[in-house]
Write a structure and sequence with these properties.
The protein is an alpha+beta fold. Helices cover about 30% and strands about 20% of the residues. It is built from five helices and six strands. The relative contact order is 0.17. Bound molecules: iron/sulfur cluster (SF4).
C-alpha cells in the first residue's frame, strides 16, 4: 500500500471567500510522484506535468490535482463529501500502484480540453436547461471540472450523438486498464 494515512484540510478557496463550495487537501506522509505516470496512463483526460511534478484530472465536477505529498480536490459540498472523495482517490492511487506491473507508464504531457473546442461541440442553443446562463458558461465550468456532461440534457438527443461521444471521450473518468471495481471513487 502506497498511502496508508493522511491529514485532511477542508477550506473555502482564498480566491472565493464566502463560497458555498469548499476545497480539500489530503496531506500525505508518502511521496507519490512515482505513481503519477501510471495514473497518467489510466485516467482519461488527465494532464501530466512532469516538471512540477503534478497530475490534474477532472472527475464528477471536481478538479483533482495529485502532487508528491498531497492530493487536492475542488468543488466539494462539505467535509463529509471531502472525506469520501479523498478516500476514493487514495484507493485509486493504491490500486494503481499495486497494479503497476500491468500498466505501461505514460510520461506524455497531455493538454487540457480547449474551452472553444468544447464549446463548439455543445448544442449552443443557450436553453439554460443545465442551470447555466449559456452554453459558453457551461463549457467553461466543464473545462474547470465544476460540472459534468450529464447536466446538459440536450446532448442526449439523437442529433447530438456524435458530439456527445466526442465530449464523453474528452471528459471520461477512467480507462478500463485498471477497471472500475467497487473501490473506484
Ligand atoms: S443545457 Fe446544454 S444546450 Fe442548454 S444551455 Fe446548457 S449546455 Fe447549452
Amino acid at each position: 500500500m502506497l498511502i496508508d494515512t493522511y491529514d485532511l484540510e477542508v477550506f473555502t478557496p482564498p480566491c472565493d471567500p464566502g463560497a458555498e463550495r469548499f476545497s480539500a487537501i489530503a496531506r500525505l506522509r508518502t511521496d507519490i510522484r512515482e505513481v503519477l505516470p501510471y495514473l497518467n496512463a489510466t485516467l482519461r483526460g488527465a494532464v501530466y506535468n512532469p516538471g512540477a511534478p503534478a497530475l490534474t484530472w477532472t472527475k464528477g465536477g471536481h478538479r483533482i490535482v495529485f502532487h508528491p505529498y498531497q492530493i487536492a480536490v475542488s468543488n466539494v459540498l462539505d467535509r463529509e463529501v471531502a472525506i469520501q472523495e479523498v478516500e476514493g482517490l487514495i484507493k485509486l492511487v493504491n490500486r494503481t500502484w499495486e497494479r503497476r506491473a500491468e500498466i505501461q507508464p505514460n510520461f506524455e504531457v497531455r493538454r487540457r480540453p480547449d474551452l472553444m473546442e468544447v464549446y463548439k461541440l455543445l448544442p449552443r442553443s443557450n436553453c439554460k436547461a443545465c442551470g447555466e446562463a449559456s452554453c459558453f458558461v457551461f463549457a467553461n465550468r466543464l473545462v474547470t471540472g465544476q460540472v459534468t456532461l450529464e447536466r446538459c440534457p440536450v446532448l442526449s438527443e439523437p442529433q447530438y450523438a456524435q458530439q456527445q461521444a466526442q465530449l464523453a471521450e474528452m471528459f471520461a473518468d477512467e480507462m478500463p486498464a485498471i477497471g472500475r471495481g467497487e473501490e473506484t471513487p
